[in-house]
Amino acid sequence: MKPLRLTLTGVRSYAGTCSIDFTGKRLLAILGNTGVGKSTILEAIIFALYGTCSWSKDPKAAYELIGKGCPSMDVAFEFSANGREWSVRRTLHAEGKKGPQAVLESLAEDSADLRVDGKAAVTQAVTRIIGLDWEGFVSTVLLRQGKFDALLKAPRAMRADILRHIFGINELERVRKRAGVRLERLNTQITEGTRARAILLPDPHAAASQALLDRERTRGIAARRRERLDALRAAQSRAVGHKHRKTGLDKAARLLRERAVADASITMAALARKKRELDAEAVEQETTGRDLTAKLEAAQGALDTAAQAGNTLRSLSSAFAVLSRLPERAAGLDAVEQRLKQEQLQHDEHEQEHTQARQELEEHEQRTAALVEAAGQAERMVSEARTHTDQIQEAVRAALQEANAAAGHLQTQRTTLETVEEQRGHSADLESELKKLRGALEAAQDDLAALQRREAAHAAGAGLAPGDACTVCTQPVPSDFTPPPLLDGKALAQ
Questions:
Q1: CA 20 to 30 Å from 257, out of 33, 224, 270, 337?
Q2: Residue 43 within any structural domain of the chain
């Protein structure tokens, strides 16, 4: 803590307002006769920081600092701590009609809104900022008046008690004991952590990385085995399909053989013979028709010739007889023609049936040949499928064995990885606990350094001899002076 400016009003002999600027000064001395107010300046600083005075921690004792006839006391103190400037202001009224007022503000531009109000809150904030409470401040920074004179004149034991009281050695002893207990506990925890760490793998991170690599490699092997197994299953499905198709072809061939016409050649020969008979009868009927037509034309020509020649009645009768038989012959010819047409139609129908039967026979023969060829191909495919199926089954068995081995290896790797993850979590907990132990060890070391600083009295008086100037009060050291001993040599040795 470094003082910057002090402004006080109504404090003891300073009835008016007095301002002191400490900026730019590295060494200060407060000089003057007795009673002019040298100690009042120090009391004003203590009051501004802690709201009380140097001789009592009770805030009511601060009312003794109010000047006679002054209605109130006001102190404003600006100081810097840890690189930041602060301003604290306290007001105390003599009659007690108003309560004490206290305000702490930061003077930094980037924290203008940082403000603390209230007596207790300001005292807590100042203690946190400076790092010293009232006891520590009046024992180390501003020595209380009368205490230092008692230190020079007191016996060795009493002097040691005074120095312990001034420098807070008792508190330091308490801190040292607590630090020792904590250090012992930390050492035990460190020993346990070291023992637990020895049980773990030498390099958990490397083991975890290797386990991850093994897991990825095992997954790749399992994926390839799975692809091969899927391909084998697909081939097996195709083989089953080929087998079903061959069964269907065998059934179709069997049905075709059952539906084949046994006497197709006989039927075709009978149809051909009937066709020839119908063709001969048609030729005969056509010849008869041509003959009758020729006779009719000859009779008509003869009749015409006889009419022109004036033939007799007998010739006409003969001609009439011939002509009278002509309608019967014509009717017979019509009947024969109708019968021939019906027979021709029947012949055409038989011809169509014969052609259709021949086509069906040819198609049947083609289908039979195709079925025979398909049956042979199916038998070859079935044979190949059986061979392929045997190979597939053998490959499937091998793949299943490899898959089972890979699954076992994967399970082992998974178990190893879980163990590594568990050890990694345990290692992280141990490392976190080790960090905490190291922090506590550093705190214990800081306490030890503070203990060494508290032995400043021994260091200051160790090199003095009777007649030398005291490094504190500059007075000659008396002839019976003995350097103060170590307050706690055993603690420093530890």
A1: 270
A2: yes
